[in-house]
Amino acid sequence: MPYLASRTIIDGCSAWRSLSGLVSRFEALYLSVTLNDIPLVTIDGESTSLAQYADKVKLIVNVASRCGLTPQYEKLEELQRTYGGRGFTVLGFPSNQFLQELSSSEAIKEFCSTTYGVTFPMFEKIRVNGRSQHLLYAELTKTADAEGKAGKVKWNFEKFVVTPDGEVHRFRPKVEPDAPEIVDLIEASLPAGS
């Protein structure tokens, strides 16, 4: 099949999947999708991507409302308030992968805003592991942590710092959001003069 014909078929499939925030791994490989190109859906149901945050340092976190690590929301929000105006953002991705997230986007939004005053962008619930793993996490989990281990997300509140140049750094769930290794990386990666 010529390139144009196969591209047209994939574009048609991608348009439908973009509505639901899904793109197959095959399509991502075939089309050379970058992190910024991966379709996402906000917690309010709006289609978007990381492209709107391309010039920012991003702290991407799989979050859950009913987890022993849920108090990390407080420190995530502190980082957002401290660095948000300087070229940084936290991006929260609720996941019920570990059976500790609320059932609806509305309930998650209400919990986050009333309990922790969350102001950073939140997205729809996704799967971070397994056959239905969201493409964003399929890409992020290729990155090794400080011990050299890549692969599955171990638990809620696993963190990925993505710099404006696309470099990905991984921090496991028990590493607090305000740990020196995360804060130092954020500060070193902020745009000059911020």
Structure overview:
The protein is of the alpha+beta class. It folds into two domains: 1-33, no CATH class; 41-189, Glutaredoxin, CATH 3.40.30. The protein has six helices and six strands, in the order ααβββαβααββα.
Strand content: 5-15%
Question: Helical element count?
Answer: 6
Biggest pleated sheet:
4 strands, mixed
Task: Give the helices and strands as they follow along the chain.
Answer: HHEEEHEHHEEH
Mean pLDDT: 86
- Would you state the CATH class of the largest domain? Alpha Beta
In the CATH hierarchy, the third-tier topology of the largest domain is known as Glutaredoxin
Q: Going across the major beta sheet, what is the strand order? A: 4-3-5-6
| Cα separation of the termini | 50 Å
Shape: globular
- Overall number of domains: 2
Q: Which regions are unreliable across 5 or more consecutive residues at pLDDT < 50? A: 1-22
